[in-house]
Amino acid sequence: MRLRNKPWAKEKLAQYPQYAVGNPAEHKGKWNEVFGNDNPIHIEVGTGKGQFLLGMAKQNPNINYIGIELYESVIVSALDHIIEAEVPNFKLLSVDAKDLTEYFAKGDVERVYLNFSDPWPKVRHAKRRLTYKTFLNIYEQILIDGGEIHFKTDNQGLFEYSLMSFSEYGLLLKYVSLDLHASDFEGNIMTEYEEKFSQKGSRIYRSEVKYMNEK
Amino acid sequence: MRLRNKPWAKEKLAQYPQYAVGNPAEHKGKWNEVFGNDNPIHIEVGTGKGQFLLGMAKQNPNINYIGIELYESVIVSALDHIIEAEVPNFKLLSVDAKDLTEYFAKGDVERVYLNFSDPWPKVRHAKRRLTYKTFLNIYEQILIDGGEIHFKTDNQGLFEYSLMSFSEYGLLLKYVSLDLHASDFEGNIMTEYEEKFSQKGSRIYRSEVKYMNEK
């Protein structure tokens, strides 16, 4: 995503601590307090402008969502959506995915969403892909036993790579669609990117994988 | 595949025992004697008219190939190709894939090829798909430890199903291409079907999976 510098973004996020969590390490192991209930927590890593989680939060009021996005200048757009929609079950966190274990304890998260992650197509950049083994290990450290990753992309190379990476890590491939929008999958919430590129005819790939307890 | 009845097929196969193996159970555990060498054996289950294995046999003279095809009226076309090409490392076997363990012992086979297998799209026919778990178990009983299945299809539903079936069985997904003919995969030998349908614009899906020893 091309970024526009927004020097005021940090300040605006700080003005809405009820939506943009400012001190995440303090909530490690007790995120239920942030939401005021014990509903399961699903996170999206790379939440961008938040359209996906906003739709999910409206669709599933009994699930708590946290959008993780490194760039404050991007996540501030998600903040605007939340303020407008007044959804209580969608919070934002502007941190680096590499550091998730600083903010979440084992079992804090039930599901990780990855949507249209940066494909990092060069082989020498493979370690930066959010489905690389080090990231799969980070997710495992914060997920419940049997937790899942739900992954969508229009990037064929990233999807191929990710299926292999999931398999090598020992994850169970529960679901795979090689053309999501032509499939019978119901309740799909589109990201901004997905709307744009599927209109141009790009196929959307989707998978669900599960961490196996016996691992 | 639509079948034309060829009542003379059985007789013709019997006339060429050097190519069409007539008494396979006798060779169980000692297929090297059939080929007269100790080269690894790769089989194709559902070999049809044999174009794929004929190309493979020419490309890889140090590998022995056995084409398995239930229908004598189909495999007799493969026989014609072998007679014409005089390839010593390609044999035919007209048996049912369900019975492979009657003819092959554990370790007789290094690799199984599945190409454009019948998709059996109805859920109630899932058990007939050659990537259903009972077939994966049959292949395991005749493959070496760490043996592989190499699978191609243009059928999206069968490929999605097979990836899930492989994963559930505990196979390692070593390789996956969601558009083989646009990929950098080298040395692809096309089947008759693949030639026809890729010309019509169908995508070809391909995967390699490996049986893990620790299973």
From TrEMBL, chains A, B:
For this protein, the Enzyme Commission number is: 2.1.1.33
Could you say which residues bind substrate here? Answer: K122, D154, T191, E192, Y193, E194
State the top-level EC class. Answer: transferase
What Pfam families does the record point to? Answer: Methyltransf_4
Q: Which Gene3D superfamilies match?
A: Vaccinia Virus protein VP39
Which PROSITE patterns does the UniProt entry name for this protein?
SAM_MT_TRMB
**InterPro entries named among the record's database cross-references:** SAM-dependent_MTases_sf, tRNA_(Gua-N-7)_MeTrfase_Trmb, tRNA_methyltr_TrmB_bact
Positions binding S-adenosyl-L-methionine in this chain are E44, E69, D96, D118
Biological pathway: tRNA modification; N(7)-methylguanine-tRNA biosynthesis
Please name the source species: Priestia flexa
Gene that this sequence comes from: trmB
Q: Cross-referenced SUPFAM superfamilies, in alphabetical order? A: S-adenosyl-L-methionine-dependent methyltransferases (SSF53335)
> Its family?
Belongs to the class I-like SAM-binding methyltransferase superfamily. TrmB family.
Q: What protein name applies here?
A: tRNA (guanine-N(7)-)-methyltransferase
Signal peptide positions are none
Lineage: superkingdom = Bacteria
